[in-house]
Amino acid sequence: MSEVLRSVRRVVVRGRVQGVGYRAWAEYAATKRGLEGWVRNCRDGTVEAVFAGPAQVVGEMVEICRQGPPGAWVDKLEHLETDPNDLARRQPGEKFSVLPTE
Predict the structure, then answer these.
(1) Do residues 88 and 99 lie in contact, with contact meaning Cβ atoms separated by under 8 Å?
(2) Which of the residues 9, 40, 41, 90 is marked catalytic?
(3) Of the residues 35, 54, 84, 88, which has the maximum number of CB atoms within 10 A of its CB?
(4) Are 26 and 65 in contact, with CB atoms under 8 Å apart?
(5) Is position 85 annotated as part of the catalytic site?
(6) pTM of the predicted model, to two decimals?
(7) How far apart are the first and last CA of the chain?
């Protein structure tokens, strides 16, 4: 049996991504896929998220973030592998958190 490669990716989404339910959509989509992490609005108008789990599933999540929920318009998506310590921002006891704007 092969070992599942684990990935932790940080994503920044630019465009019309606030006020359209992007955070709730990302939480639902990530949770549905069994991913860990968090999502938040940023004061510069972007949405930032961290997704952790099997590399293939994290990659799929990054790709669907390019579309987002109905009403969103994604102009640019940046993503990079990040440190698992980024998961520490989650709320205690939660697998995936929607965090306050920062």
Answers:
(1) no
(2) 41
(3) 35
(4) yes
(5) no
(6) 0.93
(7) 42
